[in-house]
Specification:
- This protein is α/β, with parallel strands linked by helices and 345 residues long.
- The protein contains twelve helices and nine strands.
- Strands 2-5-8-1-9 form a five-stranded parallel β-sheet, sandwiched between helices. A two-stranded antiparallel sheet has the order 3-4. Strands 6-7 form a two-stranded antiparallel sheet.
- Strand 3 and strand 4 form a beta hairpin.
Length: 345
């Protein structure tokens, strides 16, 4: 944060860039450089917001961040009148004559969209489809004619604000079947270049998990392999996400545990993090398996761990991170301050 309260993101050298991500970043930067807004559309846990911040850092422009909200109206994006300013002048220069003059002015306060358009920021509108479509109508002229229509004239602009030439826009959105997501108007989508993001390949997810959790490449690969196994059993192919792989890696590293399928605590942690313990959190196929009288959830998880990780003790946890992270030892990733902007989460 600078003295003028502008947010300037910085591209971190620790940001994970595999060939798959490099190609994605190069495409997105090409669209933005040409002046077109983009929409990073994809399921939860694919790193849309972090990628958007990385792209903004590569553009070397300050950022204005908005999170979609069902309660938003157009004034929450553009701005509104916020009170009055009253001035009273009493002129008694000639003692026998008193002249009084009063003026009252409505105070207009810019909201974030107006600030971004006026100052040439990179607008990151995170989960924009969580806002109602009518609230986003104001974006149509901004992205099309590069003109922001204000509710009333203010400061001599006649109610129209020409968008700064440096203004760029990055949107993110979840699929329409997600809870709390609205269908966006076609006129807005027609102004965006939509990049459909899916879960990354195993190499990319393992690199991200290793960087985010501070674990070795072998351990990260084993955890990502487990996550991919359960994702393939999910009817939508979306759960568990890459975020779960990062959680599992970080927790195991903090406890000083390896990917040992026969360790009782490792199994319990996997069951909690992978959300296998309840009817609402079971992975795909669990309900059908239980209904058919197959082994219990614990037995099923043990079978999967043996299949994916093998019966023998697997990769060692990172050195210098003993169980519980006692005082005097190097802090584990879970106890350190996570720098989420440096990796895709």
């Amino acid at each position: 944060m600078h003295a003028n309260e502008e947010i300037w993101p910085e591209a971190s050298p620790r940001f994970v860039l595999t060939p798959q991500l490099e190609e994605l970043v190069d495409r997105a930067l090409g669209y933005l450089t040409a002046g077109y807004p983009i929409n990073l559309a994809g399921p939860a846990g694919t790193g849309k917001t972090t990628l958007a911040l990385h792209l903004a850092a590569r553009l070397r422009r300050p950022v204005t961040l908005i999170h979609g909200d069902d309660e938003f109206g157009s004034s929450d994006l553009v701005g509104s009148d916020q009170g009055y300013h009253k001035t009273k002048l009493i002129d008694n220069f000639i003692h026998s004559v008193v002249r009084t003059e009063e003026t009252m002015k409505v105070l207009w306060v810019d909201n974030r969209l107006t600030t971004a358009c006026r100052c040439g920021h990179v607008l990151i509108y995170d989960e924009f489809t969580r806002s109602r479509p009518e609230a986003n109508n104001v974006l149509l002229s901004v992205l099309g004619e590069r003109l922001l229509t204000l509710p009333r004239p203010c400061d001599g602009d006649d109610g129209y604000l020409e968008v700064h030439p440096g203004f760029r826009a990055i949107f993110t959105s979840n699929p329409q079947e997600y809870a709390g997501v609205h269908k966006s108007q076609d006129a807005l989508l027609d102004r965006l270049i939509t990049i459909h993001m899916e879960h990354y390949d195993r190499q990319t997810e393992a690199a991200i998990a290793a960087a985010a959790a501070g674990v070795g490449a072998e351990m990260a690969e084993q955890i990502v392999r487990l996550v991919h196994h359960f994702r393939q059993r999910d009817p939508t192919g979306q759960h568990p996400s890459m975020r779960v792989a990062i959680m599992l890696s970080r927790v195991l590293a903090c406890r000083g545990l390896s990917c040992d399928p026969r360790h009782a605590l490792v199994r319990a942690i996997c069951q909690d993090v992978l959300r296998l313990g309840g009817p609402c959190g079971r992975a795909a196929g669990r309900r059908a398996a239980v209904a058919a009288g197959s082994p219990s959830a614990a037995d099923d998880l043990q079978q999967v761990l043996d299949e994916v990780w093998g019966p023998a003790r697997a990769a060692e946890p990172p050195s210098g991170r003993p169980s519980g992270c006692p005082a005097g030892q190097r802090a584990c990733p879970a106890h350190a301050s996570p720098e989420w902007e440096e990796v895709l989460v």
